[in-house]
Task: structure prediction
Amino acid sequence: MKYAYYPGCSLEATAKEYNQSAKLVARHLGVELWEIPDWSCCGATAAHNNNHLLSLALPARNLAIAEAEGLDVAVPCAACFNRLRAAEAAVRESESMQATISEIIGRDYRATNKTRAFLDVMVNGVGLEKIKEQVVKPLAGLKLAAYYGCLLVRPPKLTAFDDPEDPMTMDRLIDALGGEAVSWSYKTECCGGSLATARGDIGVRMIYQVLRHARDAGAEGVVTACPLCFLNLDMREAQAAAAHGDQLQLPIFYFTELMGLALGYAPKDLGLTTHFVNPLPLLEAKEILRHPATRRETA
Amino acid sequence: MELAGSLRRNQTLKNQVEAESGVVLSDCYQCGKCSAGCPVAPWMDYTPRQVIRLLQLGLGEVALKSHTPWLCASCQACYTRCPREVNLPRLMEAVRQEARRRGMINEKKVDIFEQAFLGTLERYGRAHEMGLMVQYNLQSGQPFKDALLAPPLLLKGKISPFPMKIKDIAGIKNIFARVRARGGGRS
Result:
């Protein structure tokens, strides 16, 4: 199984844990990732808010490079995934758009390849059975809220791999890793995205609502598949809680970090040591880091 | 006479917004599902449903003054739930782009952030988070915003003072130039 890999800008910076853990679990599970050489930014929200053509051309440049290699594209970042899918759909649906985009990017692009979310590649490509077989440290007793946010599952016409209101892909993955996915109502609510920066007054309220509902549903941690969700929830958790006279100690995880843990990798190899909300006390309390198998090794 | 002129201008605006967004405004039957589920609605001056109604009624100039299109987080909840499949996020984009062309930047900080983002992208081919934040803070007149977060981010190796520039920067500049030549792009 080989994919072109589009990390996106965040995974080189604030979301480096996601990059690190995604590459590690892909290698472990036999998924070969060919990083798109000299990839460029997808344009994100700034591009589509300001110019429709620009918002299609920027992702298309990357898709065209992968297409020339005959590869589908695996994308960890939910926001990049959404923009790449939008470009792919626009070019596939209209001949004139195909010509326009190819001319703008200076490359022939026909959208013969597909963009897939990294979560989709893992759960539906590799498959839960195969992942389960590889689990050596089950996430036993760990109650987690699977947080999908917006762009991984909406609009369903574009994202097309799970239900937009009650997605279950990540919940099923948590269960396969031995953890417990809690049922909660905010799994697809928006974290506010870049409003946390430009309108912090609004952003902290949206962030707090997500975190509060996760805690109230009994979750001990929140699992994400998006660098922007992760950054907002992890980096601004203390600020959001304080703004509401509350206290929160909810570690935030990328689903790939939890996969890596269950597959037996050490926290530092997965980036679990660079979070704002330190997840290690929780993992230690649950004895996930000291599973009997590991204790035998060290004894 | 003044009323007739205003209605004509609004009709032109309506046509323009429809053409740019691909949305047919008369598709909306005002059920309000979009606004019931909008996570940003509490902070909007007009709900998404009301923005459509303003455009339907030929009061587009009021919609152009609204903060709503600037606060829309593009979370796609409205579009996903709309029984008429009205692509509201695209409509919001079209309205704010027209407002911007007329110099009506109703959420200055949102605009400063996005223009700074596109600026680093055009210069380097990738977003540079630290440069973006510094530029945003200076231009928005809040030099110390999130200042406490910068040292831990640096220590954790999550931001870098140095941008990563891609090799094919000419290719990126060409994309921006060709989009501009087609009458769009960053102004």
